[in-house]
Specification:
With 361 residues, the chain is an alpha+beta fold. The protein is 19% helix and 24% strand. It is built from 7 helices and 15 strands. A hairpin with a 4-residue loop joins strand 1 and strand 2. It starts with 29 loop residues before the first strand and ends with a strand. 40% of the residues are buried.
Length: 361
């Protein structure tokens, strides 16, 4: 089979369909139901989900919590600095403070050795080094408080770059809505929300469990790589990002059960498929791994029978995953995906993180 051209995963999206705000109610987002066996589409509302799931299904969710990781600071000259926390790093022997991998603005004006501080004195920071990926290693000093607790108290949610609002009046609202209702606050490991889960409400989850749908959680540490478009001319030429994930014993058992496994989001799929690529049975203990799996046509799927997902950016690895899932083991899903997205655009669905959802059965 010739290499898949990245252009096959491109499409034109009217800018006004990029959702800038969430739906008034989580479960009132629209839901496009794709029946692979019947090759059909149905237009529903997300609260209709119980109609399409059945007793014995297991809903597998990513319970990662989004860290309010965007910190604001100033340079000694008075210039403003925006620092996005990505991942804590092991400290150097004998060094004080915490060291984090970060994105910094304005990066070009902050060489190694440059310093900045939070205006109220919560922290001071020094750029230790710049990495080839455009990220920086930053060492923080605080008044006995962890950087994590400072971020939880006064950081901003790192909304995706395509959510471009003229003001920050919804800061507190975003702290609630750019977070799933089942996010585990003890796992603030994501810099982007597992957005397919944003549509669930406690009442909807109760309705599903009431009809015999089981819930199983895992944790994938969603990184900025999820937003990185494919720059290579071919899909195979793209170097996929790597992300840490954790699968507890109960979820491992669910993956090997005879139930229909319904993944909530591409992050759950990525974790499931990476785990099953390396294990053919439950381990009996929690597993922590690094997902470097790239799912694109014509790959098969070992552990996902149905998928809930949002509408994704052009030329993205997430779009490749969905195309593969539409027709596992073949490339037929590529053309069908283009038809489905054209239908969604024609019916004015809302796209990306705060947008509408799709259920693939």
């Amino acid at each position: 089979m010739p290499p898949l051209a990245t252009a096959q995963f491109d499409y034109l999206l009217p800018e006004e369909l990029i959702a800038q705000f969430p739906a008034a109610r989580r479960d009132q987002s629209r839901l496009l139901v794709v029946d692979r066996a019947a090759h059909s589409l149905r237009h529903q509302v997300f609260s209709d989900l119980p109609q399409f799931l059945r007793t014995g299904d297991v809903l597998i969710r990513n319970n990662a919590s989004v860290l309010p990781a965007r910190l604001h600071a100033v340079r000694p000259t008075g210039g403003k600095v925006e620092c996005l926390l990505l991942e804590r790093q092991p400290g150097e022997p004998g060094s004080a403070g915490e060291q984090w991998r970060c994105l910094i603005k304005p990066g070009r004006r902050l060489p190694a050795g440059a310093t900045f501080a939070e205006a109220g004195g919560a922290f001071t920071a020094e750029v230790v080094a710049w990495e080839g990926t455009g990220t920086a290693l930053v060492r923080f000093a605080t008044r006995g408080e962890t950087v994590l607790s400072i971020a939880q108290r006064q950081g901003d949610i790192p909304l995706p770059p395509y959510i471009a609002r003229p003001d920050s009046t919804r800061r507190e609202a975003d702290r609630e809505r750019y977070q799933t209702v089942y996010a585990d606050p003890s796992r603030p490991v994501a810099v982007a929300a597992p957005t397919a889960g944003l549509h669930f409400t406690p009442d909807l989850l109760a309705a599903l469990t009431g009809q015999g749908v089981a819930l199983a959680d895992l944790t994938l540490h969603v990184g900025l790589g999820t937003f990185r478009p494919i720059a290579a001319d071919t899909i195979a030429g793209h170097q996929i990002h790597r992300e840490t994930y954790e699968v507890p014993p109960a979820t491992q058992q669910a993956l090997f059960a005879s139930a229909r496994r319904v993944a909530v989001g591409t992050t759950a799929v990525r974790s499931i498929e990476d785990f099953l690529a390396h294990h053919d049975r439950p381990l009996g203990h929690a597993y922590r791994g690094t997902a470097g799996i790239f799912l694109y046509p014509p790959c098969p799927f070992r552990g996902v029978d149905a998928l809930i997902t949002n509408f994704h950016q052009p030329r993205s690895t997430l779009l490749c995953l969905v195309a593969a899932f539409l027709a596992p083991g073949s490339t037929d899903g590529i053309d069908w995906l283009r038809e489905i997205y054209a239908e969604a655009i024609a019916h004015r669905y809302r796209f990306f993180s705060y947008g509408d959802a799709m259920l693939i059965l």
